[in-house]
Amino acid sequence: MLTFLIIATLAVIAAIAAIYVHDINQTQHTILRNYPVLGHFRYFAETWGEYMRQYQYLPDWEERPFNRLERSWIYRSSKNVSNYISFGSEATPSFAFRNAAFPVLEEDRKPFAGLQIGVIEGPGACARPYIAQSFFNISGMSYGALSHAAVSALSRGAKMAGVWMGTGEGGLSPFHLEGGADIVFQIGTAKYGVCDENGGLSEERLRTIAAHENVRMIEVKLAQGAKPGKGGVLPAIKVTKEIAGIRNIPEGQASISPNRHRDIGSIRELGEFIARVRRITGKPVGVKFVVGDAQHLDEWFTDCLQHPEGCPDYVHVDGGEGGTGAAPEALAECMGLPITMALPMVVAAREQHALTKRIRIVAAGKLVTPDKVAWALCTGADFVVSARGFTFSLGCIQAMKCGSGNCPTGVTASDPKLIKGLDPTDKSVRVMHYAKRMREDVEMIAHSCGVAGPEEFALRHVTAVERGVAGFRNSGAE
Ligand SMILES: Cc1cc2nc3c(=O)[nH]c(=O)nc-3n(C[C@H](O)[C@H](O)[C@H](O)COP(=O)(O)O)c2cc1C
Predict the structure, then answer these.
(1) What is the reported pLDDT for 473?
(2) Which one of 222, 330, 399, 414 has the fewest beta carbons within 10 angstroms of its own beta carbon?
(3) pLDDT over 70 for what percent of the chain?
C-alpha cells in the first residue's frame, strides 16, 4: 500500500512538473506562461462554465464594463474560430438593423475602398493627406499604460490587418514603429515627447516625429471619455527609465498631465493650434474630445467656417464610457455624454454647418463588437476605433488592474516577469484576426441591410427597439 502511495505521489508530481514545463514554454496563452499549472483553472472554468450556465451567479450579459458575450466574441474572433451561436442569442440590444427584403449578393458586394482624411487644396490643406484603408482601427493607448510587448503586438497586428494605431499621449516609442503600421501620433495635454523647456510645443521635436513615414496623422487630445477634465495619470511604478526618456519626465515619479493644454483655452486657440501643427507636420490633424453640450459644437464648427485653416481634418468623439489605464472613479462613469448621445450630436452639428465632406468623424466608447460598430457607422461615423477591444484580442481578462503594473496577462504590466508571458508574435496574429473579423461581420450586417458595403450605411438602416414592449404579448400571439 505504501509503495502504491509513493508511486502515485511521484506520478502526480511528475505530471505537474510536465504541465509546468509545457506551460512556461508555450506562447499562445499568457495566463499559463505567467501562472503555470494554476492557470489551467481559468481555462477549465471558461470551458465548463458553458455547461453550468443555469447555476452561475452572474448571467453572461451582466458583467461590466464588458460582459462575457462581448468578450467571448472578441476572444473567438481573435483566435479565428467560429463565433456562430446555437439556440438563440442572450443579448438584448436596444437597437436593431432593418434588414432588406433582398440582401446584397456576393458578386455585388463592395469592399471598403479607403477614405481620405485631410484636404489638399484651400485653407487648412495639408501636404500629405491620409487614405485610411480600414473603417475599424486601434484607439490610442500610451506606451507606459501598455507594456512594450503589447505595443509590439498591436503594431505588428495593425500592419497585418491594414489598420491604423494611435500612440496615446505617452509619446512615440520604437515599439510603435516596429511593425510598420500606420501611426496616429497623439499630443496630450503634457505634450509628452514634443514638449519644449517651458511646457509649450517644441516645433523641432514634432517635426522629427512627423518625419517618420509611418506617422500619418496627428491627434490633439482635449479629453478622453474615461476622465474628461483630467489629464493622463501614469502611476510612479510604471515610470521606468525608458518611459521617462520617451516622455522626457523624471524616472520613478507619477506622471500626471494637466487637465487641459495650457496654451489652448478657447475655440480660437484650438483652431490656431491645429493650424500650427498642420503647418509643422504637413499631415492631417484631428482632435479627440468628449461631448459635454451642443452649444460648444455649434461654436466650434462655426469657427471652422470662419477660420478654415484651423478646421480639424477629423474629430475623435470619445464616449463618456471610455476606458483608460487609471482614472478617478468620480469621473470614470458619469462625466461626459455616452457615445449613444454624443455621436448623433456631432453628426448633426457637422451636417448643420455643411462640414460633412471636410471633417471626418471617428467614434469610440465600448464599440467592440460588429453590431456596435455598425450602429456607429449608420449613425454617421466615418471610422470607429477601439482600445479595450484590442486589449481583449491581446488576451486581457478584464482583471481591471491596469494602473497597478500587475496585469496578469502582461498587457498593461510593468513587471518584466508578467510581460514575458505575452508573446508579441502570437498576439499580433490575434490582433489581426480581430480587426479582420470585425470588418467581415460589419460588412455582413451591411449586406443584410441591402447595401453593398459599410460606406453606404445610413441612419435608416438602424432603429431603436424597446425590448419587452414589442414582445409576443402585444402582438396578439397569446
Ligand atoms: C490602457 C489604456 C490606455 C489608454 N491611454 C490613452 C491615451 O494615452 N490617450 C487617449 O486619448 N486615450 C487613451 N485611452 C482611451 C482609449 O483610446 C479610448 O478612447 C477609450 O478607451 C474608448 O475606447 P474603448 O471603449 O474601445 O476602450 C486608453 C485606454 C486604455 C484602455
Answers:
(1) 37
(2) 330
(3) 95
